[in-house]
Amino acid sequence: RAGARGGANIEEDPERGPIAAPSTTESLIERGGAGREPETTGGQVLGALKAVAGFNNLVAPNVASKMGTDDGAKGNAAKGAKPPSRVKKASMENDEVVDGRQAEFWPTLLRALKLAKIYYYGDQKVRARVLLSVMLVLCALTTGLMVVFSYVQRDMMTALSEKNQPAFYDAINRYIIIIVIAAPLFALYNYVQNLVELEWRLWLTRLLVKKYFSKHAYFALKAEGTMDNPDQRICEDARNYVQSCNGLLLAVAQKLLSMGAFFGVLWSISPTLLVFCFGYSLFGTIVTTRLFGSKLMGLHFQALRREADLRFGLVRAREHAESIALYGGAKREAAAARGFLAIVAAVLLRKIAWSRNLALFTNAYEFATFALPSLIIAPRYFAGEVEFGVVTQAGMAFRTVQGALNIIIGRFEQLSGLAAETERLERLFELLDGLDGTTSSTSKKMSKADEVMREMNEIRAGRAGTIARSVVDASGGGGELALEKLAVFTPLSGRELWRDLSLTLSAGDALLVVGPSGCGKSSLLRAVAGVWTTGSGAIAAPAAEDSVFLPQAPYMPLGTLRAQLVFPASVSDEEGNFDEDDEGETLLPRMRGDFDDAELYGALDAAGLGDLPERFKAEGGLDATMEWSDVLSAGEQQRIAFARLFLRKPRCAFLDEATSALDERNEAAMYERIRGTCAAVVSVGHRSTLLKYHTLALRFDPGVVNGTSGVGTWTLMRMEEYQKSLARSPSGSMFNVF
To answer: Is the pLDDT assigned to residue 188 strictly greater than 90?
Structure first.
């Protein structure tokens, strides 16, 4: 059966476009595992250097900055067409742009409170509220103790001025009692504060990790390029947000309690002084927020983002050290790192300059508070209406109340940081929820991020909708894999690769998918795996435990050799392994992981790696912990992937150029073993040596309509027919037939 259709413009390479093949993220998806791997683009450094020079005046925020960028969008932009994402002016000189939108200080702080409600109204709300209550009670006790201390200090200063020795030593005795109470009280207060921060951070990070690795969200974020550095947002921004939010909560509570406690003190001394305190604080707050609010918030956000880019570039250089060395690209990477560093320095210099301006105002503003109370109360003291101790108490009360009213001024940089961290976390929540098609956890109102996700979903759906999926019933004669009128669209640009693909694989069948690069071969495996869902038609595929996907670049998780073999399951004693979350939900794939040593050795022997444990005997054999992606060659890593398959013994195996790094002898051994283990095999490959291991050939051809690119075509034939077509081609090449 063959299909030939046209009509859509080809604007991207589906195999090297929005989802680069091979990619580590795709490796995680196709084997059922999940783990964070960074993404990048070769143009990122160039774009960064252009930004320093001021060339990048137009950017597509969160779409064209990472490897996941849809090449279709790039093609459209090159042709003068509007890319599918919204385009905004956002250069490095615009410090007030946060995630592609204008920085808004007060609304963002209000959203920080909404983000905090997720924790205090979540599944751990009882414990969270109890700890919060204990912390606030301790805050009140420490504040009350400071009020008592102010009176002791007043009596001490009055006794000194009057040279009243008995009264002075009486104040000293009370001061010692306060120290005895304060030492354990403040220690307990700090302990509870740190405990609240830790539990809040753990809860928030677990929630983000759960969302990030559910329903292939991490894969979609990379594929669509909708966000920079999600790993930094989950780790560092979550930590900084919790610390800032908790610190500010305590500061506000303490200031309010202090203000309430000293309000009466200040009023009893001088009502005029209290009124002046309120007016002075209002003046400082208005000046600070109007002049410095959006500017410092935007700069803090830019600093977080640019430092993450610098760190990511260095991490990527470490991961690809061998390739860089072989290419002789060290100078280029060093220049790239210097370019990122220049951007970081430019942002930090602007931030330092604005912090200097803020400090200039706040220093003058706060130093004035040491003299102002005395100026106001001095006439009464000189008139003999108040004692000298009252003057010192008035100064302390004034600064306490004024400090409570001026919390925004005193903690302005921390508030700016909290606002930027809230923006980044809120956007991460919005995008993760948007990928699920649910309303954002942080806002019932549609945000700009939600609008972007809605646009992407509309592009995804387009004319195609969603591919229908079901689990094949091999025992009922339904075959091992069935495709019915399948059409696949690329996720972001919505380009139709091919349509009306129908086939059924029965036990004993082996399908080889061939064709030139960019025609949609790997996209077929993505659709079968459920990674790409946009399209039409139906797929009846084996259950997850009955199928194994082997990408070209196997993923090697951190851990022991044993952990490499049982991936994506986990060994029971693996460090940092948690099989269930706090709600008892299984975190690991529902597949066997308790293989004994004999089974593991057998799988290694079958993959031609029987000597591997012996090679690392000194390090622990099967329990040796190494950086396996560096220790093992590409061919050995591919054979580790085959060993995983031999352990699982699935009914159906899907191989995406899984033997590209193997010699012909090892390739033959792997395929012979697979044919004896699996009922059906689907392979994507370019080598002519693969022909003899397959019974069917599915050939994809790029479509051409009126001389331009269009929807691709496909041809399904028996292997004998395909080999005859190769023989009729001029050189007998696998690809000249195209």
So the answer is: yes
